[in-house]
Amino acid sequence: MRQRAQDIYASAPMRSLLADETVAYMPDVRRCAGSRALLLSAAAADGPPNPPYLGQWVTLRLAEGRLGGDVSASANEPLPFLDGAFDLILLRHALELVPLSLDEIVRVLTPGGLLVLTGISPLSGWTPWWLWRTRGSAAHARSPLELAARLRRAEVLVERVQRVGQLLPLSNAPTGKTPGWLGGGYVLVARKKGPASVPIRLRPKPATAPVRAGLAPGARRSSVS
Fold first, then answer.
1. pTM metric for this prediction
2. Which domains are seen in the chain, by residue range?
3. Which of 17, 22, 54, 101 has the fewest CB atoms inside 10 Å of its own CB, making it the most exposed?
């Protein structure tokens, strides 16, 4: 039976893949300097890393062509944030549901900021399963090598591209054991050219601080909790 594409991320195989991705990129997140981070995820239950590592997180979830969470906006419009608003941007399968603009992602990333991007590799054993479960909703899935080439043209340094996850989308697959380049998912780590920001903090900020800085003029916060 057909499912909405975002429901796939609650399935057992996808939960296992999301866990493998987290293991792969957490060392990069831990060394990220800055104070503001953006999580844009296709998984409804996804949240910032714990502990959060950066002082303020903006969490957006993609569903039905819209962005919900801390800010409400259309996924087809420019992101409602100022240029260079975030020191870290974590995209979790966000490019698989709608053709989000990579130029917009790079625009809201501060010079020297870190971009971590995950997704399902279209050249993996997961693609037939995805197409069957969603009746062809993987039209926007992109190769990590293609994404890396586009980021380089946007003056973004690609630090590494890593395949993760199991060879096939099995419900009982163990997490944390990746088969290298045969994995169904990938993690792409890149850094925007320019000096990294090292903010001075006089006192720590709580991880649940309300969204204030970085919103573009006229943007509105979502009422979705």
1. 0.82
2. 5-192 (3.40.50.150)
3. 101
DSSP annotation of 22: H
Measured in degrees and rounded to the nearest 5, phi and psi for residue 119 equal -175, 180
Q: Of 66-80, 144-158, 165-179, 210-224, which range is least confident?
A: 210-224
Q: Which of 125, 152, 161, 127 is nearest to 141 (CA)?
A: 127
As given in the structure block, the two tokens for residue 59 are: 């969490």
C-alpha torsion sign, points 13, 57, 195, 103: positive
Q: To the nearest 10°, the Cα dihedral for 195, 36, 190, 71?
A: -130
Mean predicted confidence (pLDDT) in 157-162: 96
Q: Which residues contact 185 (CB under 8 A, 6 or more apart)?
A: 17, 20, 21, 118, 119, 120, 121, 124, 126, 163, 164, 165
